[in-house]
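Hey L., structure's done. Input below.
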Amino acid sequence: ILAILIGLVFPGLFVLLKDLLNDTVQSEAEIRNSCQVPTLGSIAFSRSRKQIVVTPGSRSPVAEMFRLLRTNMQFILPPANDTKARRILVTSTASGDGKTFVTANLGMALAISGKKTVLVELDLRKPKLSKYLGMDSSNQGITHYLLGHENLESIVRPSNINENLFVVSSGPTPPNPAELVMYPALDKLMENLSASFDYILIDTPPVGLVADAMLLNRFVEASIYVVRQGSTKKGMLRLLKEVYSEKKLNNIGAVLNGFKRSDNVSTAYGYGYGYGYYEPEKSRISEVIKRVIGFFKKNN
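Output:
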């Protein structure tokens, strides 16, 4: 009997301890419960080395999740103004959460749907967006424009991967990024882009490292905050909660990136944003206890 008890109870205790000791975010439910921030969906972990996973014919789980994100983000956008583009900022707490990956592929999902979309590389400190699209970020970029060395027409470039997708690269890394994004010329740039495109997606630095995203908030209607499963520490959600509760960014919706389904997470419809994930009410340990009780009842 002792051996049976050990065989039944120890696996459950191991799973429970493993969950208790894991200090990283695992589900959308954790984000909602900790921060009261609406979640827009999860992006599946991609084993592909390709940075652009959304193409016209792609039907992979990660590509479908970006199409769903394209739909779900409409819930955080205010009513449309027919004369201006929808303007969305994408950020995260720390580097490596996947904000640039989300920006690029959400842009592709919008472009494929027929929306004229421009990606603006305003992570001037560590630009990656242009590289994801096979472009050079140091040529004809935002820093050139803000310093008066280029005009608008020369810095808005076609992506060459979709006729509806355009890119404004960062340009050379400046010594004073925070000061540069406060230049009045950037306001004029955004005004002109807004009159020419259906969507503007702005890739910004992480809010946990620098204040640039807060400075760029003046240009956008909504913000997508990327959290990475198994990487973002639960303690880091305090920053997201603060940014959300103090309205430091407009109309925030969170996205769980790098999602790998586990036995502790199931899929469901709910929360008003379509297809998502929830944590089962019954944990493994409760099931183990039930089996132990059932065993003793059977043998008495």
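The chain has two domains: 1-27+284-300, 28-278. Residues 263-285 have pLDDT under 50 and may be disordered.

-- N.
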